[in-house]
Amino acid sequence: MLDTKTYKNVLLAVDNGIATLTINRPKSLNALNSDTLTEIGQALDEVKANEESIKVLVITGAGEKSFVAGADISQMHNMNSLEAAKLSKLAHTSFRKIEDLSQLTIAAVNGYALGGGLELAASCDIRVASNKAKFGQPEVTLGIIPGFGGTQRLTRLVGRGKAKEMIATGKMIDAEEAARVGLIEEITEPQNLMTKVKEIANQVMKNGLIAVGMAKYVIDRAADLPLDTAIDFETQLWSETFSTKDQTEGMTAFLEKRKPTFKGQ
Ligand code: CAA
Question: Name one GO biological process term (predicted).
Fold first, then answer.
């Protein structure tokens, strides 16, 4: 069973079924260089390999100021197109691993979520933010476009108009506006952020986790399919839940007027 694992630029800790992956380069406001992106991928492999003990994954940034202030500009400024493509693919590979986890993932946005940082948060299932957090895709202010999924995942979350506004102006929005446009689900006082995140995680962990994983899977995988195909896909996964012990337990517990004890089987 995994408890804590230390990398150079990220920390992975597990406590009572909740893994917390902390991007840990506070001196650079947790900017993502290639080593950090590689380590994020390695940590996610650990989370995937430990499904038995890890039920929910939380991603956050070290320090009080920043979640992640983007890709590392000092690493990028001399890159050529081939090196840029390599960095973008590395980020895509790591961020896709977040979406491919069966466990629910929550971004705990403790400060700046800019560029690659917002792209990282957008790869999680749920975003909870401090009321001090700021969100933006400032790439055009550097003469580039978002390259870690921002043109796609941000657009899917907030719609084309808002995504184009954010990307074309490069302006930051505050947590209130982020909640209003559907970019984040909850806002908290900074000191309550992790408590709120854990509250959500604990609520999720009381449920049938095979069902949680399947719901996440069908929501993501069917999002871009035609409705008829998508609802067929839902029917298929819905019917599969009836072959789990969790379904028997959940419905039996309801009929017996008691709380269910799910085993994830
Ligand atoms: N890359 C590298 N270093 C960064 C960084 C980044 N993205 N963001 C901040 N830092 C570093 C700063 O250079 C500074 O380092 P030094 O102390 O060595 O000078 C340190 O972090 C603290 O930053 P500031 O002094 O700038 O702090 P501030 O409070 O004055 O400003 C900020 C905070 C508004 C977030 C500002 O740091 C900023 O604008 N950062 C860049 C944000 C950005 O443009 N992100 C997008 C990057 S491009 C991208 O992500 C492409 C993509 O699609 C993947």
Answer: fatty acid beta-oxidation
Residue 110 has what pLDDT?
A: 98
Find, among 95, 96, 90, 139, the residue nearest to 114 by Cα.
139
Kindly state the tokens that stand for 121: 């948060």
Q: Is 177 considered catalytic here?
A: no
**C-alpha of residue 79 to centroid of ligand 1, in Å:** 17
Give the pLDDT score at 6.
74
Kindly report the pTM of this predicted structure.
0.97
Q: What residues of the chain score a pLDDT lower than 70?
A: 1-5
pLDDT value of residue 1: 60
Q: What is the pLDDT of residue 119?
A: 98
Domain ranges of the chain: 4-205, 209-255
| Residue 215 parent element (H or E) | helix 209-222
Is residue 119 annotated as a catalytic residue, yes or no?
Answer: yes
CA-proximal residue: ligand 1, atom 12 (nearest): 28
Consecutive H or E run containing 73: helix 73-76
- What residues contact 126, with CB distance under 8 A and at least 6 apart? 104, 105, 106, 107, 185, 200
